[in-house]
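Changelog-linked ticket: zinc ion example.
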Amino acid sequence: MGCYTRCKSCNANLYISQQKETFPLSFYLTCNICFRQNTYLNHELTEERHDYQCSFCKNQFFIKRSPPLSVSCPHCRSNIYINYDGTITLILQGTLPDKSKGTVGGLLGGAAVGAIFGPEGAIIGGILGALLGSQSTSKEAIYNDAV
Ligand SMILES: [Zn+2]
Ligand SMILES: [Zn+2]
């Protein structure tokens, strides 16, 4: 999975289709919205995540790993299998949280648009808009493969 950051000039979301670990401590990115070049530090990158909606409690959660993956919904503890193609299968129903009429946010898949990244003076493409829109109610899934 890639990562993203915000343009220091126009605050646009910049998506980079490269893993955070592969970046040097500092590097240049050129915004594809305002075309200004800024210096960024590795720790200013946020790792990409994929948002899903629990099919049982309808709340959102996200994963930072690539599917297929077995997780538990952080809201209702349902056991959910995230398939290779990104669809989810409810394995075991959990317990509905109190505010069960949660937001219906729909499925936000990997909204990554293609990006070009070079070792220096990178031109970066793609905007990650939808993925950042509804993060406030979303929690990271509980990974079940840790055993
Ligand atoms: Zn910009
Ligand atoms: Zn749930």
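Closing comment: Example verified and attached. The radius of gyration is 17 Å. Helices lie at 130-133.
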